[in-house]
C-alpha cells in the first residue's frame, strides 16, 4: 500500500502519473477477472468485445447483462482501489473521471463512438458508484481519531510519578 501523509499537499507529477497508470491497469485487470467470473456463472463465453465495445453492453441478451454486471462490480472494486492507491477523498472524483475518460477513448478507437443508451447509462452509474463509495471509504479513514501516545521520560534516572485511580467497589453499586 502506498503511504502518502494526509497533510502533504505537494504537487508531485510523477506520483500522480504513477497513480493514474496503476489505477488504469488495476481497473482492466479486475474487469477481466470479473468478466470471466460473471460469464462463467451465466454460461457465456468471454470476449474482448466485452471490454471495449459499446455493443456488448445491452439488456437484450445474456452477454450484455453479464457485461453490465461486470462493469458495476468493477466500479465497486475500483472504489477499493481508490482507497488503496489514492487515499484521499478529495481526489476520488478526479481519478475516477480520468479512468473513465481513458476508457471512453479506448472504446472510441476500438470500435466507434458509443451510440447505445445502455452503454451510457451503465458508464454513468459506474462512475457515480465508484466516486461515491471511494469518497466514503477514504473519508472514513481521514476522520479517524489520531492516537496520541505519551513518550517515556528521556532521563531514566528521574523518578517516574504515576497516579493510579481505583474504583471503589462499594460506590458502583
From TrEMBL:
Keywords: Golgi apparatus, Membrane, Protein transport, Transmembrane, Transmembrane helix, Transport
Top-level lineage group: Eukaryota
Bilayer disposition of the protein: Multi-pass membrane protein
Entry's localization field: Golgi apparatus membrane
Keyword DNA-binding among record annotations: no
Record's GO cellular component terms: cytosol; Golgi membrane; trans-Golgi network
Transmembrane stretches, start-end: 21-43, 63-86, 93-113, 119-139
Nucleotidyltransferase recorded as keyword: no
Major location (coarse): Golgi
Record region (Disordered): 153-173
GO BP: any one term: Golgi to plasma membrane protein transport
PANTHER family: PROTEIN SYS1 HOMOLOG, SYS1
UniProt record similarity statement: Belongs to the SYS1 family.
Protein name per the record: Sys
Species of the source: Acrasis kona
Amino acid at each position: 500500500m502506498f503511504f502518502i501523509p494526509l497533510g502533504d499537499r505537494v504537487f508531485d507529477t510523477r506520483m500522480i502519473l504513477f497513480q493514474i497508470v496503476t489505477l488504469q491497469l488495476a481497473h482492466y485487470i479486475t474487469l477481466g477477472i470479473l468478466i470471466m467470473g460473471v460469464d462463467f456463472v451465466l454460461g457465456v463465453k468471454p470476449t474482448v468485445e466485452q471490454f471495449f465495445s459499446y455493443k456488448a453492453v445491452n439488456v437484450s441478451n445474456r452477454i450484455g447483462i453479464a457485461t453490465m454486471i461486470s462493469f458495476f462490480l468493477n466500479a465497486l472494486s475500483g472504489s477499493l482501489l481508490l482507497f488503496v492507491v489514492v487515499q484521499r477523498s478529495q481526489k476520488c472524483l478526479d481519478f475516477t473521471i480520468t479512468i473513465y475518460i481513458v476508457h471512453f477513448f479506448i472504446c472510441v478507437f476500438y470500435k466507434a463512438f458509443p451510440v447505445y443508451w445502455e452503454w451510457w447509462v451503465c458508464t454513468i452509474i459506474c462512475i457515480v458508484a465508484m466516486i461515491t463509495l471511494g469518497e466514503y471509504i477514504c473519508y472514513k479513514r481521514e476522520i479517524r481519531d489520531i492516537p496520541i501516545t505519551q513518550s517515556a521520560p528521556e532521563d531514566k534516572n528521574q523518578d517516574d510519578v504515576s497516579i493510579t485511580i481505583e474504583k471503589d467497589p462499594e460506590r458502583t453499586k
